[in-house]
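An example makes the point: we let one protein speak, the chain in one-letter code, the fold tokenised, and here it is:
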Amino acid sequence: MIRSYRKTDLEEMVKIWYEASVIAHFFIPASFWASQKNAMKEEYLPLAENFVFEEEGQISGFISLVGKHVCALFVAPEMQGRGIGRALLEYAKTLKGRLSLKVYRENESAFHFYEKCGFVATGEEIDEYTGCAQILMEWK
């Protein structure tokens, strides 16, 4: 089931974000992600429109939107490959009708996932926090 997040979900969302980030972004030191935990919990997630994927009372993934921009899409590592990310993305598509996002160029599996979900690359930029290249993608 996909539902709007509750403040009580924040700890689990940050845990999923951190664990998935360290694995997916192996090219960025884990210490960077650890240094961002408080900001995710206290600033970034509360400012976004968040939806969680919940099964039997357990959150296994979430998507964060600011307007029509996907700021975050993360699935717990042990739950990946089960269609949770795609379900969250499809949910966001029905809500917004058009979406944009950024994905690190070195995160090839995520880039291909977004391509399979209908996103196309529209440009590239350097992330000011990590110095890594990000591909800009859109779905219409």
